[in-house]
Amino acid sequence: MGIKERRIREKEMRQQQIVTAAKQVFLHKGLKSATIEDIAIEAELGVATIYAYFKNKDELYASLNLITLEYLVDQVEIVYHNDSLSIEQKIIKFKDAMYNTFRFDPVLLRNIFRVELEETLTALSRELLEQINQLTRKILTMFANIFDEGVKQGIFLPRHKMLFVDIMWSTFAGLVIWEGAKTAINPKKDFFKSSLDEAFDIFLRGIKTGKATDKGKSK
Amino acid sequence: MGIKERRIREKEMRQQQIVTAAKQVFLHKGLKSATIEDIAIEAELGVATIYAYFKNKDELYASLNLITLEYLVDQVEIVYHNDSLSIEQKIIKFKDAMYNTFRFDPVLLRNIFRVELEETLTALSRELLEQINQLTRKILTMFANIFDEGVKQGIFLPRHKMLFVDIMWSTFAGLVIWEGAKTAINPKKDFFKSSLDEAFDIFLRGIKTGKATDKGKSK
Amino acid sequence: MGIKERRIREKEMRQQQIVTAAKQVFLHKGLKSATIEDIAIEAELGVATIYAYFKNKDELYASLNLITLEYLVDQVEIVYHNDSLSIEQKIIKFKDAMYNTFRFDPVLLRNIFRVELEETLTALSRELLEQINQLTRKILTMFANIFDEGVKQGIFLPRHKMLFVDIMWSTFAGLVIWEGAKTAINPKKDFFKSSLDEAFDIFLRGIKTGKATDKGKSK
Amino acid sequence: MGIKERRIREKEMRQQQIVTAAKQVFLHKGLKSATIEDIAIEAELGVATIYAYFKNKDELYASLNLITLEYLVDQVEIVYHNDSLSIEQKIIKFKDAMYNTFRFDPVLLRNIFRVELEETLTALSRELLEQINQLTRKILTMFANIFDEGVKQGIFLPRHKMLFVDIMWSTFAGLVIWEGAKTAINPKKDFFKSSLDEAFDIFLRGIKTGKATDKGKSK
DNA sequence: CATGAATGAGATTTCATTCAT
DNA sequence: AATGAATGAAATCTCATTCAT
Questions:
Q1: What is the DSSP letter of B118?
Q2: Which residues face B156 on adjacent strands?
Q3: Per-residue DSSP letters for A63-76?
Q4: Residue D207: its chain C contacts at CB < 8 A?
Q5: Contact between chains at D117 and C171 (C-beta distance less than 8 A)
Q6: Distance from CA of B140 to the nearest CA of A (A)
Q7: Which residues of chain D have pLDDT under 70?
């Protein structure tokens, strides 16, 4: 039984090894340009071994995303349901959750933002895209509800809740992608977290009415 | 002489025809997935004709971007040097210039944001990237100077000028890309311009100190 | 216009060249074992050229068959409707039509007889098989009608018409395939046609009642 | 000693298990398409276990055939040497022996008829084919002798003995293969045996002179 | 000039076979 | 003895680019 367990553990490790390599390669090359051989070399395995673990390139690509996105959904849900946090605190926590997730897996962000384009994806990954869409919608809905509450309480400007969501979400994504582009040109010390924090500060300043913020529960 | 001129005009038109088609196809499929045949069909020309006008695929891709980006630089420069505009008005005009440019040519934005990534590009397009970088830097420097002025005048929060540039630039890009992603999922009426305007409103609210704004010249 | 026509003619010739090569290769190796490279070499063309003319291996395989089978249907139909032939004469003519067809294209016979097996076939070739089935049924139905008539006229034994069809059809196919196997072992002078004729003689002797044959029209 | 015997018995059973599975899979997929994994799954064993019992795929394929064909040779020999049977009775018995053999193992028939083709086969399987040829020739020679006797006795038409053999053999094979094709299209009740019997009836009617048949011994 | 056709080079995918346990 | 995992080698298919007309 010890043997069987070790086998399973080894298999999982190998899978992880492939996933990690694939993230690297997909991040640097994109879905279409990354070759399975690239991934195999990065993972220090044979090409055929990759295929022993994942049915094809798309399927491999798929699994990377879902795992991470599900993790993000979990984090956001916990914050969303935490009644001891103020609205503003929740938004800050949302930002941190996104930060943790996308720093850890930038490929996912690229997918959510359809950076690898529709037409290039095959039947299989369409299914994946649908799943990604669904999870993304789940997250955005929670964001929207929080903003809505802020508007109702009068602490945020009276705008449609989805507007705030779009801006927050886009600003975040824009910063991550732009950060990637900048460091691609000129790799240097990482000021990203502080830029992100400042951006959210400014965003919150920008949407607040100035009315006394809620000190109490948000729900 | 009329004939010679017509020849030249026809040649330019043909070139424009190819550029337009190529933009379409690259936008929908990405650099790697778009085939020369796709472009030829879209342009209603033969494959070999494309090669009569552009040395190869990368070179074609390159020209698309530079043309548009140079146009953007021009627009930004005009605003930048227009002394009759207030700082805030300039920022608004910058936004509009970006809007016009990137709505017209979203592929460029993808390139500035390194969405088609480094490793995939061949020697020739590295050169292109360098040119893009240079032009981009030119634009961002002008942005930075304006923000700096605002900070010095005390109308903007005392932060590093590049922080504001990064946030503005990222927010803009994020919105464009996110808009593309959303309409890919659910094509509907286009509220993009108003979302963008609101986002900049909020951004400006967020960075202003509250001190009376400059009514006069910015330079 | 002369040029355009020549182009078309050349294209057709090239297509024919590929078809001919493919028949050869498929006959000797079978669908699964034959490689596109084999066919390309046989046709003295590049691999990619084959793909310029046929979407994929299955599609190529498909076209080979349908062309020939349709030709057989035509031949059989002409005989079938020729009122000046006696029943027995028609059967002889059917045999000759089959002989001409399958000598010319033995791969088809393999397909009709499901020699390349079901499970190995892809979606496209399933569709092909359906078309083959339909055409085959058309032929067999005509055969059946002729036998039926013979039975009704009392010149053939009173058996179910499909029995005769199956036996005639199988005997024919068996001889072709067996001939192929024998000459594979020991290529020698071709006695096939005479063997086939004798086999049909014996078959006809075997099914006739002995009653005076119809001297007149069969329809 | 009980243990050693059990070991041997178990080993033989395992071998049988593999052979049975392999027959199934080869029948349904053909030599080329069938994978060792398919066979392993069908046999409910591991892939590597197959290789513990058979040197490679071809060798496995080989043994399937020889075993059965040898069995057929035995059956035919018994009939052939049974002096109490008339010529016609012997032919009937030959048919039954073939029927039993090929119904039980259709893959063999495919091989005898070179349905899996020459060029695809490796050195080892060439050797196998040679063995198959030899055994087949043995059978056909016995058939030929019987027909020859019939001709000499004047009960069969004066034709070359190999002609009769070819026709009988082909008719039989044609029926088996055609039956397979038909049931692939339209699986239904199995009338095969009766069709086969009728076909042989007709064949015998066709080759007989009409002279009183031999009531006595054929040898 | 414009172009259809041909193709080399390279990517994905499959599978028989080996190997370590 | 039995096996799951790893992989080299080979097959299918794609596409940027060239060439002859």
A1: G
A2: B208
A3: HHHHHHHHHHHHHH
A4: 202, 205-206
A5: no
A6: 12
A7: 1, 114-127, 183-190, 211-219
Cβ B120–A30 below 8 Å, yes or no? yes
Looking across all nucleic acid strands, the nucleotide with the smallest C1' to CA distance from residue B124 is F16
Please give the structure tokens belonging to residue A115: 């950076």
**What would be the CATH architecture of the domain defined by B56-207?**
Orthogonal Bundle (1.10)
Under an 8 A CB cutoff, do D177 and C170 touch? yes
Do chains B and C meet with 3 or more Cβ pairs nearer than 8 Å?
no
Q: Residue D156 pairs with which residues in a beta bridge? A: D208
- Does residue A71 contact residue A101 with C-beta atoms inside 8 Å? yes
Instruction: Give the bases of strand E that a protein CB approaches within 7 Å.
Output: 1-21
Is 50 exceeded by the pLDDT of residue B127? Answer: yes
Residue type, A72: L
The CATH number that domain A1-54 falls under is 1.10.10.60
C140 touches chain D (CB under 8 A): no
Residue nearest to nucleotide F3 (CA to C1'): D46
Contact D204 C199 (CB under 8 A): no
Given a cut of 80, is residue B216 above it in pLDDT? Answer: no
* Spatial CB neighbours of A11, under 8 Å, sequence gap ≥ 6: none
Is the minimum CB–CB distance between B198 and chain A shorter than 8 Å? yes
DSSP classification of residue D213:
P
pLDDT in tens, A55-112: 888 888 878 878 888 889 999 999 999 999 999 999 999 999 999 888 777 777 777 7
Higher pLDDT, A194 or B125: A194
Looking at per-residue pLDDT, the higher value among D112 and C100 belongs to: C100
The values of phi and psi at residue A165, to 5°, are: -60, -50
Within 10 A of D122 (CB to CB), how many other CB atoms are there?
12
Mutation target to probe the A interface, by most A beta carbons within 10 A, among B23, B91, B117 is B117
Residues of A in Cβ contact (< 8 Å) with B42: none
Share the mean pLDDT of chain C.
Answer: 84
Cβ within 8 Å, pair B202-A201? no
pLDDT tens for each residue of C25-81: 988 887 888 999 999 999 999 999 999 999 888 888 878 878 888 889 999 999 999
Tell me which residue of C187, C185, C170 sits closest to D114, measured CA to CA. Answer: C185
Q: Find the residue in B nearest to A126 (Cα).
A: B185
In chain D, what are the domain boundaries? 1-54, 56-207
pLDDT exceeds 90 at position A207: yes
Which residue do the tokens 């956001």 mark?
A76
